[in-house]
Automatic annotation (TrEMBL), chains A, B:
<feature type="domain" description="Tetrapyrrole methylase">
    <location>
        <begin position="5"/>
        <end position="212"/>
    </location>
</feature>
<keyword id="KW-0489">Methyltransferase</keyword>
<dbReference type="InterPro" id="IPR006366">
    <property type="entry name" value="CobA/CysG_C"/>
</dbReference>
<dbReference type="GO" id="GO:0032259">
    <property type="term" value="P:methylation"/>
</dbReference>
<dbReference type="InterPro" id="IPR014777">
    <property type="entry name" value="4pyrrole_Mease_sub1"/>
</dbReference>
<dbReference type="InterPro" id="IPR014776">
    <property type="entry name" value="4pyrrole_Mease_sub2"/>
</dbReference>
<protein>
    <recommendedName>
        <fullName>uroporphyrinogen-III C-methyltransferase</fullName>
        <ecNumber>2.1.1.107</ecNumber>
    </recommendedName>
</protein>
<keyword id="KW-0949">S-adenosyl-L-methionine</keyword>
<dbReference type="Pfam" id="PF00590">
    <property type="entry name" value="TP_methylase"/>
</dbReference>
<dbReference type="InterPro" id="IPR000878">
    <property type="entry name" value="4pyrrol_Mease"/>
</dbReference>
<dbReference type="InterPro" id="IPR035996">
    <property type="entry name" value="4pyrrol_Methylase_sf"/>
</dbReference>
<dbReference type="InterPro" id="IPR050161">
    <property type="entry name" value="Siro_Cobalamin_biosynth"/>
</dbReference>
<keyword id="KW-0627">Porphyrin biosynthesis</keyword>
<comment type="similarity">
    <text>Belongs to the precorrin methyltransferase family.</text>
</comment>
<dbReference type="GO" id="GO:0019354">
    <property type="term" value="P:siroheme biosynthetic process"/>
</dbReference>
<dbReference type="InterPro" id="IPR003043">
    <property type="entry name" value="Uropor_MeTrfase_CS"/>
</dbReference>
<keyword id="KW-0808">Transferase</keyword>
Length: 253, 253
């Protein structure tokens, strides 16, 4: 029996137009699609010949065990199928790609990787800001607030870098997260929450760090969302539209 | 006279197939294309109706002054044209998008942003690694070694975060950069250089940090390239192919 292959594919932040040309081509030729629940379900329409299996991995929620997803990938590939493992955003930022690549190498199953736009970039586009405006910083750090051992990231070390922080999977504990950041950053540090960046239900708020959690809660923002913190976020178009930068601002798509 | 608009467009890391579907559509309808020299010149073929102007901004090299690029954008937009400012990678990571967005807002010229795949993600794909393997780290920091004031980034603070480092524009001074990192990181920290990620001339080397500069030089690697440093890089497929992880490894496309 011929061995198939597995493509780890980043589906981008939500808007199907933000798929890469290669991703669309790969989906069109897929035999089996394993669809992450952070990826747009409409992507199934781009894989007309594929058996589509929904495998959720959203932090905290009811989800398919990682080991089962890996067994599924290997079983179909060994049966000669082209398996496309679709992840929201980029394939190599968070989301267990490391474990899946290791499993594929152990099993000696051929694989390829197709990058996608991570939601932190789409969030910056929604705000109309550079993630790394050179007047304010020299880089950006993508970090997850959802850790295997439920410990907190080292916010003091992250703040000390002076990079813009793009925090993923943080909405479920945005209050404690902001409290932790306020111990190591200025209360008026510009910050924002962008929900469903690039998707039809995109919404964002900008507020100084000490009012971000309250502002996001009042606006009813929830997951999936990216929390952005740093002086570069003070350039947001939303804030340019207001006179008082200490005033929180909400925008809906 | 009608006002046109400006699209800040991320062209991805090099392979035209890594353009987004939206980016291809926007280029097809462009009147004027301002092409960054880190973007693939072949992209001009995707804009058959556009006047294509090459505006280089590569660090250190001969380049078009930023103020001139901004004046050009505004002049054509005010003349009613759809100007597409094409940047390598993503539109909002490094590359002066912050200044250009500010200029567009000051001039009240309508703009839109189309994200692209940044070369750090394509570099991880070339290596077959997750940027954030949860066995090793909780995030990734994208940082430029090329600072306006020619000072060094705060490597100690960056190392203290434990995030994977993706260092852009560092090849011209990789020796001093690695020396600085060796003062704050283990000599055997896994590291890699990926030149022209995703492009036809993609090449990469993996080596422990204390041998990275020498290995990259011996392999003749140059700009544009991304330097990746951190334990997550130790998962590179290249290294799995060797028995001795202390041995540097080169791969060519």
């Amino acid at each position: 029996m011929t061995t198939g292959k597995v493509t780890l594919l980043g589906a981008g932040p939500g808007d199907p137009d933000l798929l890469t040309i290669r991703a669309a081509r790969v989906l069109a030729s897929a035999d089996v699609v394993l669809l992450d629940d952070l990826a747009n379900p409409a992507l199934a329409d781009l894989a007309p010949n594929a058996r589509v299996i929904h495998v959720g991995k959203r932090g905290g929620c009811r989800s398919t065990p990682q080991a089962f997803i890996e067994r599924l990938m290997l079983r179909y590939a060994r049966a000669g199928r082209h398996v496309v493992r679709v992840k929201g955003g980029d394939a190599l930022l968070f989301g267990r790609a490391g474990e899946e690549l290791a499993a594929l190498r152990r099993a000696q199953v051929p694989y390829e990787i197709v990058n996608g736009i991570s939601s932190g970039f789409a969030a910056a586009a929604a705000l109309g800001v550079s993630l790394t405006h050179r007047d304010h910083c020299q880089g950006v750090t993508f970090v997850t607030a959802h850790r295997r051992d439920h410990s907190e990231p080292d916010w003091a070390a992250l703040a000390a870098t002076g990079t813009t922080l793009a925090i993923y999977m943080g909405m479920s504990r945005i209050d404690s997260l902001c409290d932790a950041l306020l111990r190591v950053m200025r209360a008026d540090t510009p910050a924002a929450v962008v929900q469903s960046a690039s998707a039809h239900d995109e919404r964002c708020v900008c507020a100084p760090l000490d009012r971000l959690a309250e502002t996001a809660r009042d606006a009813g923002l929830g997951s999936p969302a990216v929390i952005l913190v740093g002086d570069a976020i003070g350039e947001a178009a939303l804030l340019h539209a207001t006179t008082e930068q200490r005033e929180p601002v909400l925008r809906q798509a």
